[in-house]
Amino acid sequence: MSTSSSPCICLASASPRRRELLAGIKVGVEVRPVDLDETPFDGEAPEAYVTRLACQKASAGHQPDGLPTLGADTAVVRNGEILGKPADAEHAAAMLRSLAGGTHEVMTAVAVCGPAGLLSTCVRSRVTLREIDEAEIVAYWRTGEPADKAGGYAIQGLGAVFVTHLEGSYSAVVGLPLCETADLLSRQGVPLWNRLVS
Ligand SMILES: Cc1cn([C@H]2C[C@H](O)[C@@H](COP(=O)(O)OP(=O)(O)OP(=O)(O)O)O2)c(=O)[nH]c1=O
């Protein structure tokens, strides 16, 4: 599958958000998701965890002599604890309760495997949510939006009504830090501007 007639990278991700973010900066992709065990190692620090997964996704999706391959991973981190995607309604409710009325970090790592080897970076952002009542938690779950989102909310969707403050990269919270991604792609021989204006 590709989002343009001439894909310039391989995207090792099933995330529609990552595909849309890349389309927004005119990067055509060939989608090749990889399935990994995303369980953190015992005592693994959050930044090391998301960076390891992004690198594993990029490496696993990369084919010898193939297009540069991008992998990414996003985690919500509260008081040092990694919150992944909710397993069910109860889990989602517990996550949202723990995030409401406070500030947490969102860490997104991106890795690109290509001619320059495996390059990666991790972007940390801080998000503050207002208080959220129980009726809102139930109603929000019923929309279906939280189910496949780290931390159980989406800043780009209905979840935006809970967000009072963001410090960092909006695109990183959605799933891919675009400024840093463009830099990694350029270092892998996929420059942005001369492709667009030539
Ligand atoms: C916090 C937050 C997360 N998310 C999403 C981004 C990621 O898609 C998802 C975290 O899960 P990931 O495991 O990072 O990604 P994924 O499973 O969707 O896709 P893949 O592993 O194939 O690349 O949560 C939002 O869309 N909005 C938000 O505000």
UniProtKB/TrEMBL annotation:
Pfam family, one: Maf
First-level EC class: hydrolase
Catalytically driven reaction(s): dTTP + H2O = dTMP + diphosphate + H(+); UTP + H2O = UMP + diphosphate + H(+)
Keywords (A to Z) from UniProt: Cytoplasm, Hydrolase, Nucleotide metabolism
Alphabetized HAMAP family for the sequence: Maf
Similarity comment: family membership: Belongs to the Maf family. YhdE subfamily.
Function of the protein: Nucleoside triphosphate pyrophosphatase that hydrolyzes dTTP and UTP. May have a dual role in cell division arrest and in preventing the incorporation of modified nucleotides into cellular nucleic acids.
Name of the protein in question: dTTP/UTP pyrophosphatase
